[in-house]
Every structure is written in structure tokens, then in C-alpha cells.
Design goal:
The structure holds 2 protein chains of 2 kinds. Chain A contains 5 helices and 5 strands, in the order H-E-E-H-E-H-E-H-E-H. By secondary structure, chain A is of the alpha/beta class. Chain A has one domain: Udp-n-acetylmuramoylalanyl-d-glutamate--2,6- Diaminopimelate Ligase, Chain: A, domain 1 (3-Layer(aba) Sandwich). The radius of gyration of chain A is 12 Å and the shape is globular. The relative contact order of chain A is 0.25. By secondary structure, chain B is an alpha+beta fold. In chain B, strands 1-2-3-5-4 form a 5-stranded antiparallel sheet, covered by helices on one side. In chain B, strand 4 and strand 5 form a beta hairpin. Chain B starts with 6 loop residues before the first strand and ends in a 6-residue tail after the last strand. Classes of the chains: A alpha/beta, B alpha+beta. The interface between A and B is medium-sized, with 23 and 25 residues.
């Protein structure tokens, strides 16, 4: 499923206005530990996290993740947003907690490894 | 050991500079892609570079990363001036970390840095002098996918 379809169906807020959401999402990973995502995330995964600082963008670039969803209504730091737009990493958000969001993503066919 | 390098570059890394964290690794990834290395080699080298860069930023005062690419391998050598690693074997244990509570709040200190480097490299050496610094030698073989 495309990121844009997931955004619509789960009512996700899109923070990176200039970044296309047409990438396919092939799976998902949920973690707040950066090295855990570096170690276990896969290319084209959607990353669910509550970290909002700029380093999440570098992790997404290095792992070629499909995008990042911030949970619990957390908003990206301004530098995070700038870096994400520069690198073309989609950053989205939801008021839902990680458990609930992951459950809904799973229901739509986005699964872990 | 290695055939002639087709590319070499040095990158300084400043300890404590979290705002720039990951930029050297991203740059190395771009360079290796541009050199025409295969996707898997690029990905492994980028991950190893990221973890090595983060270690310098989190723990050392300053450091330097040297990238050298030959047709057979990608070598990343990291030298830092810092506190060093007292027990390398313990530091290699997944889950062990000396990160501060502040770092952990930001999602660092998973205790996976050195294990991630090991997993993504073919040769990995750690040398450390307590109170002086640490040297990492990381080699990723290109397995015939020559640049």
C-alpha cells in the first residue's frame, strides 16, 4: 500500500508538505531506539516512533525507510522537519499511541518481518 | 592486503555534536553509491559508518573517519580521542551501554552500536586505550561487485 493511502485511511497528519507520499510501504517497524531500527528495520518499512529529534531523519535515510510516523500527537522539532524535507523523508503523525497505530496498520496489511 | 584504493576521503567528527549526527554516514553512503558499489555493500557500510560516527559523537571529544575503497573492499578506520573502552568484550555485548540518561531519552544507548558494526562488516577490530581513545577498523568486502 502507498503511504498516501495509509495517510488517508488512518487520518495521519502529514508534516512534510513538499515530500511525495507515493512510495510503497512494504512493512513496518516500531521502536524508539535508533540503533534498534538501524539493526532491525528494513528498506521500505514505515517507522513508528515517539522520537522527534533530527537524528530520526538520518536513520530513515540510511535504512531507506518509507517514512516516519510520530505517535501520541508528538510534533517534529523544526530542525527535524527541515532535514526531512531536504532529504525527502516523509514525516507523518497521529494522536494514537504506538500500540493502537501498529494494530491498525497491521489490519491494513502492513506487517513486520 | 588490499589492492590499490580507487577512492579515499577523511571526515572529521566532533564529539557531542548531536545536531550533525549521521551526516558523515549519509555522505559515505552517497559516495559509495556514486562509485557504483552494489546496494548490499553500500547499505552495510552505511550502517557500520553510522554506528561508528554515533559512538564518536556520544563518547569522544573528537575523532576522524577515514574511508578507503578498493575494488575488493570498503575500509572505514575511525580514530578518536576520548575516554576509551575499558572492557571491549563487554561493550560488544548486545544491550550493554554506558550512555547517559539524556542520551537514552533521545533513543541512543540501545547497546547495539558495536554489535551492529560487527554484523555488517567482514572484518572488525577494536583497539582502545583507556583515557586516550579508540580505534576501529571496519572492512566490508565487495564480493566481486567492483566499483
Amino acid at each position: 500500500m502507498k503511504l498516501s493511502d495509509l495517510a488517508t485511511r488512518l487520518d495521519l497528519k502529514v508534516y512534510t508538505a513538499g515530500t511525495p507520499l507515493e512510495r510503497p510501504v512494504l512493512g513496518g517497524y516500531a521502536s524508539d531506539l535508533l540503533s534498534d531500527v538501524i539493526g532491525h528495520g528494513r528498506k521500505d518499512d514505515l517507522w513508528v516512533t515517539m522520537q522527534i529529534h533530527p537524528n530520526i531523519v538520518a536513520v530513515a535515510v540510511l535504512k531507506e525507510l518509507a517514512g516516519i510516523v510520530l505517535v501520541n500527537g508528538r510534533e517534529p522539532a523544526p530542525e527535524t522537519l527541515q532535514q526531512a524535507e531536504r532529504e525527502g523523508v516523509p514525516v507523518l503523525g497521529t494522536r494514537l499511541g504506538a500500540f493502537e497505530l501498529v494494530g491498525r496498520l497491521y489490519g491494513l496489511g502492513v506487517k513486520g518481518s | 592486503m588490499a589492492a590499490e584504493d580507487v577512492y579515499r576521503q577523511e571526515f572529521p567528527v566532533k564529539g557531542g555534536d548531536f545536531a550533525k549526527a549521521g551526516t558523515v554516514a549519509c555522505r559515505i553512503k552517497e559516495l559509495l553509491k556514486d562509485l557504483g558499489l552494489d546496494v548490499k555493500t553500500v547499505r552495510r557500510a552505511a550502517i557500520a559508518a553510522y554506528e561508528a560516527e554515533m559512538n564518536v559523537i556520544m563518547y569522544a571529544w573528537q575523532g576522524r573517519m577515514d574511508l578507503a575503497v578498493s575494488p575488493e573492499e570498503v575500509r572505514i578506520t575511525v580514530d578518536d580521542q576520548g575516554p576509551g573502552i575499558a572492557d571491549i568484550e563487554l561493550a560488544m555485548t548486545e544491550g550493554y551501554s554506558t550512555a547517559t540518561p539524556e542520551m537514552r531519552e533521545l533513543g541512543f544507548g540501545a547497546g547495539m552500536g558495536l554489535p551492529n558494526i560487527k554484523r555488517n562488516s567482514d572484518v572488525f577490530h577494536v583497539d582502545s586505550q583507556t583515557g586516550q581513545g579508540t580505534r576501529l577498523e571496519i572492512i566490508i568486502r565487495t564480493n566481486g561487485h567492483k566499483p
